[in-house]
Design goal:
mainly alpha, 7 helices, 127 residues
């Protein structure tokens, strides 16, 4: 499996070089500050989009059914991590250095899904 992956990666690298795109040179010139600014602008854009969407649904009187866009993204990511067997990303656990990261992602996805769909008896009890 690993030799097939290495072969495919080397073939992809050779194909990209023949087209004039060198992956190694691209990552040497990788500007982390620019990426950080782009991510920050995207996050601020998401917050602004949520605020404008909420203002619109509040104006039309449908604010009780409003769900922020970022919240659904986080829930979708947590569900995707829980279904890692079907997505084929279960091989992450095989890495030596990624065991702790996989445990953290398991805990985070469990917490997000528990927050979205609480199973606690006290939370669901009606008074």
């Amino acid at each position: 499996m690993a030799s097939n992956t290495l072969f495919l990666m080397s073939q992809a690298d050779a194909s990209l070089r023949s087209l004039g795109f060198d992956v190694k040179q691209y990552f040497k010139n990788f500007d982390l500050q620019t990426v950080g600014v782009v991510v920050l602008v995207a996050a601020l854009g998401l917050v602004l989009f949520n605020l404008l969407t909420y203002a619109y649904v509040a104006y039309t009187g449908r604010s009780d059914s409003f769900s922020p866009y970022g919240r659904s993204l986080v829930t979708g990511a947590a569900r995707a991590w829980q279904d890692k067997d079907t997505w084929g990303i279960n091989d992450v656990r095989g890495g030596r250095g990624l065991d702790e990261v996989a445990e953290i992602l398991d805990a985070l996805s469990n917490a997000v899904l528990e927050w979205e769909q609480p199973t606690n008896v006290i939370k669901n009890k009606t008074l």
